[in-house]
Amino acid sequence: MNNVALASLLAVLGTLPAVAFAVDIDLQGKVTSTITATVSKQNNFFVTSDTGGWFDQGLKMSQSGGLDSAYAVQARLKVVSTNRDFQVRLDQPLVIRNASNASKVFLQPIVELNAEGQAPKTLAVATPTVFKNPVQGVAGVDSIGYYGLSISAYPPAGTFRETVGTYTGVLSLTFEPVISNL
Predict the structure, then answer these.
(1) Where is the signal peptide (predicted)?
(2) What is the DSSP annotation of 115-141?
(3) Domain for residue 61, yes or no?
């Protein structure tokens, strides 16, 4: 009989809703935390023309000397950088080619960059050349430097009649900030 009573009691208890008991818990020790966040200024690195734009129409080379002198063009660049140090390299050799006769190319192209008031540095393919923007007088302000980009090349061999035409080329440079521990 005891087994029947126990089974009946369990059956009745199984049909009753569950009852939850509220219990107060007393926490001991540290129960709050302070979280501190720091927002840092983003590092900037911008290269533009000296007026803040770019050379959408390209750069036009001109020949100021005789027929055997080099063609040249200069452009002024503005570099804005959080870090003063940066490097520049040519991505590929500069080839200035005749639009209607691909065998006619300019000879000995030279690409140079210089900080204002400094001697020019010749840029090379896959070889970074390091430059340093001027020191800013105010802490936390990006450094701004102005640079002269110079491109020169000699015209193709031949007479004026043989080499006349429209020549184009693509100058591809990579400017990269250099992270320093200063």
Answers:
(1) 1-22
(2) ETTS--EE-BBTB-EEEEPPPPSSTTP
(3) yes
